[in-house]
Amino acid sequence: MTTTSRPSTTKPLWGQALAKPAPEFPQTQLPILSGAIPAGLAGTLYRNGPGRLERGGKRVGHWFDGDGAILAVKFADGAASGVYRYVQTKKYQEESQVDRWLYGNYGMRPSGNLWERWGKSFGSAANTSVLALPDRLLALWEGAEPHALDLDTLATIGTDNLGSDLTPLVYSAHPKVDPISGYIYNFGISIGAQPKLNLYVSDRSGKVIKSTQTKLPRLTIVHDFLMVGKYLVFCLPPIEIQPLPILFGLASYSESMRWKPELGTQIMVFDREDLSLVNNFTTEPWYQWHFGNGFVDADGNIVCDLVRYRDFGTNEFLREVASGTTQTEAIGALWQLVIDPTAGKLTSSEQLSDRSCEFPLVESSQVGQEWRYTYLAVHKPDAVLSRELVGTIGRFDRQTNTLTTADLASHLYPTEPIHVVDKFDANRGWIVTVVYDGKNHQSEVWICDCDRLDESPVCRLGLPSVVPMGFHGTWKGN
Predict the structure, then answer these.
(1) How many independent structural domains does the chain possess?
(2) Which residues contact 321 (CB under 8 A, 6 or more apart)?
(3) Exposed/middle/buried for 36, CB within 10 Å: 0-12, 13-18, 19+?
(4) Residue 151 belongs to some domain of the structure
(5) In Å, how far are 16, 42, 93, 231 from 74, measured between CA atoms?
(6) What is the pTM of this model?
(7) Domain for residue 4, yes or no?
(8) Residue 255: what are its φ and ψ, rounded to 5°?
């Protein structure tokens, strides 16, 4: 799990998907390329990710900077239709008018001279994830309010503060939905002289009904958190962000981050009911983007899985993705942590699989509860050395400690696997993912039987044009 660099040679096939801005397409009936859509698959897949990484001949500074575009694929009566549209943020509209980047972002400085850049606000790319509410879809980005979209047409309605009194509402990209109460939990980090961790609880409609603020010891990056039993769990990595270069427009957020393993990883455990801090302690250093899931065992310990990296080299790897090729090796693996929330200590940490992976997910009805299967996007065994992105999808069985992966050809690149429960059989599930075919330069939607991932997909659907590999998605049943 070391981070090293290699000389670049030819670009891998996946770079073609990111080379040009992806074109939007209207509501379109999707052709079935093979198999058939399961009768019990009824609902809509939503996915978010950077659709545009170039403007006016200039590339973005980081994969995280690309303009967000949403794909919606609706399944009904054995057929499927899709629509793909950019989120019409203020940033997107203004930059489209002049065909150049104006705003600063995660890996980009704002345009202009020093005086023009000083204190200039960052523009939301709305490109990271989605949250499907009863009456609208939210496009999420780490550092700003969500953007609301029409569930069917994906037309942008506007920014949405979810009825909160906080201005601005900093709403992160990984909300957790309690499968029993339907309440939605999320967070955001306020930047200032004293950085704060904001916690939010929303009802089923998305309206914020409770929020708190907790001071943080330093400005750092937190991408995901864990909702488990009666707790909310955060891991603050040993990263320190220097705010002054950002304020003066001299550096982007990414450029201002410093990896400091001597700080260790800080674990903060909150009570989910009143959002009070239960415990706060420091343990061994690591970096993570994503948790998988967790539960509270019979002894009151928090047992959870996550994709863990040795250091922050993953950030450089993801920066390089925007160029269409990578030189940095950054290997993340599935780990299990056991946390004693009362004593405030990490009682054990164990690597579960030696395969490099990302985007861990579980069945939505099992979030925060004991579970068996974690679904993952997985690198091929030699993918890191050959500079490839994730090349297959897999399912880790916690009961047998085995990883089952799909057998995908080397020119195929899947996205995060979304688990869907069959409408007619609660014991049956499907995995829906978007696959880029680098050999034929086309994108497809694949449906796989989650119990037979190592077999051919049960259905393949064609998309009208290439949808670049993105980040996160969700499923909304009919």
Answers:
(1) 1
(2) 18, 63, 389
(3) exposed
(4) yes
(5) 27, 8, 27, 34
(6) 0.95
(7) no
(8) -70, -20
Report yes or no on 5 lying in a domain. Answer: no
Using one digit for the tens of pLDDT, what is the confidence trace for 198-210?
Answer: 999 999 999 999 9
Contact 460, 17 (CB under 8 A): no
Domain region containing 384: 13-477
- The full DSSP string for 123-181 is PP---SEEEE-SS-EEEE-TTS--EEE-TTT--EEEE--TT-S-SS----S--EE-TTT
Per-residue DSSP letter, 367: T
The tokens describing 315, both together, are 């950030």
Asked whether the predicted pLDDT for residue 45 surpasses 60, the reply is yes
C-alpha–C-alpha distance, residues 4 and 328, integer Å:
6
Which pLDDT tens digit goes with each residue over 431-456?
Answer: 999 999 999 999 999 999 999 999 99
On the 0-12 / 13-18 / 19+ scale of CB atoms within 10 A, 374 is buried
Q: Is the dihedral of CA 470, 471, 477, 478 positive or negative?
A: negative
How crowded is residue 227: how many other Cβ atoms within 10 Å of its Cβ? 24
Residue by residue, DSSP assigns 303-364 as EEEEEEESSTHHHHHHHHHTTT---B----EEEEEEEETTTTEEEEEEE--SS-EEEEE--G
Q: Which tokens in the block code for residue 367? A: 């979030």
Cβ–Cβ < 8 Å for 107, 123: no
Task: Give the Cβ contact number of residue 416 at 10 Å.
Answer: 25
Beta bridge partners of 444: 435, 462
Q: Say which residue the tokens 């863990």 belong to.
A: 308
Q: For the chain, report the end-to-end CA distance as a whole number of angstroms.
A: 42
Phi and psi at 477, nearest 5°, equal -75, 155
Nearest partner of 468 among 69, 80, 104, 198, judged by Cα: 69
Q: Residues 439-462, buried b or exposed e (16+ Cβ, 10 A)?
A: eeebbbbbbbbbeebeeebbbbbb
Residue 1 located in a structural domain = no
In 147-271, where does DSSP find H-type helix?
243-247
Looking at per-residue pLDDT, the higher value among 190 and 238 belongs to: 238
Distance CA 146, CA 349 (A): 35
CATH of the domain at 174: 2.130.10.10
Q: How far apart are alpha carbons 292 and 360 in whole angstroms?
A: 5
Percent of the chain past pLDDT 90, that is, above it, reads: 86
Contacts of 441 (CB under 8 A, 6+ apart): 16, 17, 466
